[in-house]
Please model this.
Amino acid sequence: MEDTDMNDMLMTRNSVGSEDIKISARHVQVFYGDTHAIKDVDVDINDKTVTAFIGPSGCGKSTFLRCLNRMNDTIDIARVEGEILLDGEDIYDKRVDPVQLRAKVGMVFQKPNPFPKSIYDNVAYGPKIHGLAKSKGELDEIVEKSLRRAALWDEAKDRLDQPGTGLSGGQQQRLCIARAVATNPEVLLMDEPCSALDPIATAQVEELIDELRENFSVVIVTHSMQQAARVSQKTAFFHLGNLVEFDDTTKIFSNPEDPRTESYITGRIG
Amino acid sequence: MSALLTLPTALLIVFILAAVGFVLGRKRAISAAGGDQSSLHSLPKQHGWHVALATAAPAFVLIIFWSFFSGLVSNIYVEAIVPDDQPELRLPLDQREGLSDREIEIRIEGRRDLFIANVKSLAVAIDGYIANGNATEAEVGNWRADLAPLQERLRADGQVVGASVTQGALTHALSLRSFNRGLAVTGPALAIALSVIGFALSLALIKRDFRARIAVEGWARGFLVFASTMAILTTVAILYALTAPSLTFFREYGVFNFLFGLEWAPAGDVAGVPEGHDGEYESALGFLPLIWGTLYIALVALLVSVPLGLFAAIYLSEFASKRVRAWVKPALEILAGVPTIVYGIFALVTIGPFLQAVVGSTVMPNTVSVVTAGTVMGMMLVPFVSSLSDDVINAVPQAMRDGSLGLGATPSETVLQVILPAALPGIVGAIVLAASRAIGETMIVVLAAGALSNVTGLEPNPFGAVVTVTTRIVAVLTGEGSGFDSIDVLAVFALAFTLFFITLGLNLLAQRMVAKYREQYD
Model:
């Protein structure tokens, strides 16, 4: 029964996707000290598409995601090799400022992490830092637009001055998404954004991800295969630091080529 | 026999009995099991522990309380045996002239305190005299004050004897001694009796189904509760010791005169005997100049230690690599282990002359000053502030940093806009704790702040010498000739009392702030 549901979804959501390549990763290797965490991964991430990274715990999917906006730089012992091109430019080039890069490649984390500030200040944080608003009015506009994009405006518009930490878990995560889209990024990375949420909040965030696809290229790491099937057009399966298979989501879930992928999606490994 | 019955010997006996109890308890449990150990509710070892604890613990607690409170009991005793019509307490007529009833009353009270102090010191002197082998207990019992020059005999033996040994004082001293002897023997005897009862009862309790394991758990909990109460009791005891003399001082000198007096000039007046005109003390004991100096120095110390300590903490927790952190953090903590007297010497011989050379001796007539003491105290507090701030900064969840960095903020923007605001209540708590240490700090200010014995007004010049609450306490108590019955010494108690409440208030404030901060992330 679940199969038919999933197939319905595959038909509706997963059919469309842009063919413009946004990010192109070649021969990416990541080492944590002596641990070889990512082994020679090649991936192309399309613009205005949701790409899902799936795989068992410890397979390297989050590590690889964090390479895409150089968040691994903040870990002393992490070392990244290979090249990752964003719009044809290597983001690991010495001339690239990781701080600017992260404004273009936003990130939403596993656990909602609003700052202990007001809802308004949470969303305005990025735009203020990057000087995106010339006046208070413009900033107000950005905040409203971002909250609307994150489907939080109706719930939050009357309490913008209250602390973001006072929201419910699902609202907090949408606030974090609003915060990330406020800097007007081109790519949005999401590291298991629903793992701390209940099913209803998860459904809301998933719907949101589907809407975000109109404006952004979204990369989502998820534990849940159903979620990957529901929200993504492309799926990459990671296993033990290797990219095992990368293809259209419909293909991966209906007719995987690699036996390891098949074992994983049918629940035999993981 | 009674000479052997002291608290240390009682303690020894109790512990031996407990050790024997452990062995016996174990054996008895094994024989109760009758070869089948699994039929016992608790292991033989636990039965042994139960006997040992039941033998030692109550006696141990009794010994501790006895050694604390026997002094108190003997004080109450001596207060009670000196009657109000004791001839020595009468105020001679020529000293009553021109005094109001109230003043006479205060003086008689002062004479009574003095007399009781004499009785106590005489009792101690006689103890020492006997201990040196100059007389036996029986001989001493027959002593009379006019018999031979008693005072000279005691002094010749090196004993400290008060002003005059009268027959009344001697009588009371002798009865105080016999009361103390009784007290000294009763305590250990009670302790031993208690431990024997515990020993016998707990051994008798051993049966197959006796739950020794749970009983031992109860003893352990009791012991932990006892340990934590002792710490609280110490605070209460300190407060108790300070309260009575402080209240006497406030009553005699006036709370208002003390708290808002602008002059500190102890003259060695005797308590209860104001010598100036209109029945006023010649000692001027105003609190303001002292607390001014204290707070002024604390302010300078905070101006030095808070930025340095906070920036050090930010560097260590946010920017330093693991290797740097592994070196710098212990180095900072070494700074915290330097004794304050060493900082004081450093201030006196290095910082003071250096500052004087920089600002010139017109502004800074002495090498000791507010800035000298404040700077060095600030250095002392740097590791204190940095290690506390480091803790609160590290307690800010990594998710906050990731969130901010992930939005394209630089590390400094992250620190300034996310981490510091989140850690602020904790950091303020750290600063308040540092302030309370600065206020209570003694050695540095004794050496580097100035040692004027008389001050008037509040010194505004940061390069001028000041006095602080703590330096005056040291100065009055370590000499300058005022005896322990002087109003100046009572004033010192009042200073300590006030200081206690200022630092207590600051610490409570700090705790509340830290607690408030904790709530945010739990």
User: Anything to note?
Assistant: Chain B has a mean pLDDT of 84.
